[in-house]
Design a protein that fits this description.
It is a single chain. By secondary structure, the chain is an alpha+beta fold. The protein is built from 13 helices and 32 strands. The strands form seven sheets. The protein has a six-stranded mixed β-sheet with strand order 17-16-21-18-19-20. A six-stranded mixed β-sheet has the order 23-22-27-24-25-26. Strands 7-6-10-8-9 form a five-stranded mixed β-sheet. A hairpin with a 7-residue loop joins β24 (408-414) and β25.
C-alpha cells in the first residue's frame, strides 16, 4: 500500500549504502577527521597492526612503530599516505595501509521536524539522505506524507539553500536521486499536509493529505459516507487564493462514481470535505410506515408511497396531497397538489410523478365516509369510494331489510358554515326494496352524508274484517285495497259503513274520513281514498 511505502522503506533501507553517483571526488577526500572520531587502521598482511584509534582532544592518534601522530583536519587518504610513509621508513617494506572512519563524532548533521530522533546526528562516511532518515529513527506518523528537504549552507555566501527530495521517487527509482549529506546539513521532514472531514462520514476530523489524493480516495480514508449522508450533498470548502474566506465546490459524486464526464478532483491542503446529512421529507396519515424518510434522488410521490409501505386500509379512498414550506423563511406551509386515491391508486398521473423537495410533507388523508342508518342489513359507517351512488351504497350495506322494503329513503347532508346541522336533500319511496326515483338512485354521496332507510309505513285495519291487524302501505294503497288485503268483510261487515281515522297534525285527535265501498265497487274510483302512514281503517257492522 502506497501510504506505508515511505515508512516500510525507511525500516528496510536496502539502499542505505548506495554511494553518490554524481560525486566528483572520492569519499576519503570528502571527509575531514576531527576530535573524537574513531578510525580503523589496517596494514595488508599485518593483522597484528589492526588498530581502532580515537582522535584525542589535541587531534592526535597513536599507532604501533610510529607512535603519536596528528590527524586532525586531514582526509582519510591523507592519513593513509602519512602512515604508509612512516612505516616505510625502516619498519615495513612496501606497506599497504587502509584507514576507515568507524564513527564520526566531529562532523554532524541536524534532524528536524517529524522524525523520531531530532537533534544532532554524527555524520559518518557515505551517509545518504535515506540512511540519515533511518539514523533519525524514521518518519513519524504525522510526517509520512510531508515534504522532505535538506537545508545546506551556501558555498562562499551567508545563508542556506533548500534541496527538496522526492523520497517516493528515490525509492521507486532504486536509489536514483538520493544525495550524500554534508556536515552541518539540516534534514527537515515537514508535517504532512492535512484536510478536514466534516458531517456524515465515518471518521470526521483532521486527516493526512496523501500525494495526489482524490475526492474518492479521501472519502475512503475518512471511513466512507454514513447511512445518514448517502443521499446528502457532497462539497469541498476551499480557501480562496489572495482572499479571505472559503469557497464551496459542490461535487456530483454519483457522476464521478459512474464514470461520466464529471472528473474526480484532487484535494488541496486545508480543504474541508463536507458530506451533508440526507435531505428528508415527512409522510403522514394513512400509510403503513409513517414518519421522516430519506429524500433520495428523483423521489416522486409514487416512490415515496412505496417506500412508506403503501397506503393503509383506512386511506385507500382518501385524498393525497403535498404540503410544501414557502420561501421567505416564514416557516409556513401550503398545499401545492392534491388528488384522490382510488383503491390505493393515485388518480392523477401528474401528482403521482411530482418530485418531492426537502421538508415536504406528503399527507394521505383518511378515507371519507358516510353513514347508513335504518332498515338495511348492515348499518354503520362506510368508506366513500369513488362515484359512490345511493344505489351502490345500499348494495354495500347488504340491501334493504324486510322492514324497510316499502319505506322511504333519503339523504341527510351536513350544511356548510360549520354549524354541524344536517338537512334532507333528496327523498323517495322504496317499492319492494327498489328505489322508485332514478334521480335519487344515481345521486352521488358526499363525505359525512347520512343515508336513511326509514321503516315501512303501516296502517291498521279494524272491525268487521276477516284479517284485522297492521299492514304495510305499499304503492297506491287505498281503503278498498286495504280491505281486500285484510281478507274482505265478515258477514256482518257493511260496505257503506267504512271510515278512515287519520291523525291530525300536532296530535290534535283524529280526522274521520268516510268511504262508501259500494260506490267504489260500482266504478267510482274517486270514492276511494289513498291511505297514509298511521291511518286506521274501521269497518262497522251493518244494520239488519
Amino acid at each position: 500500500m502506497k501510504r506505508f511505502l515511505i515508512f516500510s522503506v525507511i525500516i528496510g533501507f536496502v539502499l542505505s549504502f548506495i554511494s553518490y553517483a554524481g560525486a566528483e571526488t572520492s569519499s576519503t577526500d570528502f571527509y575531514k577527521v576531527g576530535v573524537d572520531d574513531m578510525l580503523e587502521i589496517k596494514v595488508l598482511d599485518h593483522k597484528d597492526l589492526r588498530t581502532l584509534a580515537t582522535v584525542t582532544s589535541d587531534g592526535t592518534i597513536s599507532f604501533p612503530y610510529i607512535g603519536t601522530v596528528n590527524v586532525k583536519d586531514m582526509s582519510l587518504s591523507e592519513i593513509e599516505a602519512m602512515i604508509t610513509n612512516k612505516l616505510a621508513e625502516g619498519y615495513i617494506k612496501y606497506p599497504v595501509v587502509t584507514v576507515s572512519l568507524v564513527k564520526s563524532m566531529s562532523r554532524k548533521i541536524f534532524a528536524y521536524g517529524e522524525l523520531y530522533k531530532r537533534g544532532e546526528i554524527p555524520l559518518e562516511e557515505n551517509v545518504t539522505l535515506l540512511k540519515a532518515l533511518s539514523l533519525a529513527g524514521g518518519v513519524t506518523e504525522n510526517g509520512r506524507y510531508g515534504m522532505v528537504k535538506v537545508r545546506r549552507k551556501k558555498e562562499g555566501k551567508p545563508g542556506y539553500r533548500d534541496i527538496k527530495v522526492d523520497i517516493k521517487q528515490v525509492i521507486e527509482g532504486g536509489g536514483k536521486g538520493d544525495i550524500l549529506l554534508e556536515p552541518d546539513d539540516i534534514l527537515i521532514v515537514e508535517r504532512s499536509k492535512t484536510f478536514f472531514a466534516h458531517g456524515e462520514v465515518g471518521k470526521p476530523g483532521e486527516h493526512v493529505l496523501e500525494k495526489n489524493m482524490s475526492l474518492v480516495r479521501a472519502l475512503s480514508a475518512v471511513g466512507g459516507i454514513r447511512s445518514e449522508g448517502l443521499y446528502g450533498k457532497v462539497k469541498i470548502r476551499r480557501k480562496q487564493k489572495g482572499k479571505r474566506g472559503y469557497k464551496d465546490i459542490e461535487i456530483d459524486l454519483k457522476a464521478i462514481v459512474e464514470g461520466s464526464k464529471a472528473k474526480d478532483m484532487l484535494l488541496q491542503p486545508d480543504d474541508i470535505l463536507i458530506v451533508e446529512r440526507n435531505k428528508t421529507f415527512l409522510i403522514q396519515g394513512e400509510v403503513k410506515n409513517r414518519g421522516r424518510l430519506i429524500l433520495e434522488e428523483d423521489m416522486t410521490v409514487l416512490r415515496a408511497l412505496l417506500q412508506a409501505g403503501g397506503v393503509s386500509e383506512d386511506g385507500m379512498y382518501g385524498r393525497i396531497k403535498i404540503r410544501r414550506k414557502q420561501a421567505g423563511g416564514s416557516g409556513e406551509y401550503k398545499d401545492i397538489v392534491e388528488t384522490r386515491l382510488n383503491d390505493g391508486v393515485i388518480e392523477s398521473s401528474e401528482v403521482e410523478d411530482t418530485l418531492l423537495q426537502p421538508d415536504d410533507i406528503l399527507i394521505v388523508e383518511r378515507n371519507k365516509t358516510f353513514l347508513i342508518q335504518g332498515e338495511v342489513m348492515k348499518r354503520g359507517r362506510f368508506v366513500l369510494e369513488k362515484d359512490m351512488t345511493v344505489l351502490r351504497a345500499l348494495l354495500q350495506a347488504g340491501g334493504v331489510s324486510k322492514d324497510g322494503m316499502y319505506g322511504r329513503i333519503k339523504i341527510r347532508r351536513k350544511q356548510a358554515g360549520g354549524s354541524g346541522e344536517y338537512k334532507d336533500i333528496v327523498e323517495t319511496r322504496l317499492n319492494n326494496g327498489v328505489i322508485e326515483s332514478s334521480e335519487v338512485e344515481d345521486t352521488l354521496l358526499q363525505p359525512d352524508d347520512v343515508l336513511v332507510i326509514e321503516p315501512n309505513e303501516k296502517f291498521l285495519v279494524y272491525g268487521e274484517i276477516l284479517k284485522p291487524g297492521e299492514y304495510v302501505i305499499k304503492n297506491d294503497m287505498t281503503a278498498f285495497k286495504a280491505i281486500t288485503l285484510a281478507g274482505g268483510f265478515t258477514k256482518w261487515g257493511s260496505e257503506n259503513r267504512v271510515k278512515v281515522l287519520r291523525s291530525r297534525k300536532n296530535n290534535a285527535g283524529f280526522e274521520t274520513i268516510r268511504v262508501n265501498i259500494d260506490d267504489v265497487i260500482d266504478g267510482d274510483a274517486a270514492a276511494d281514498i289513498a291511505l297514509e302512514a298511521g291511518d286506521i281503517v274501521v269497518v262497522s257492522a251493518g244494520v239488519f
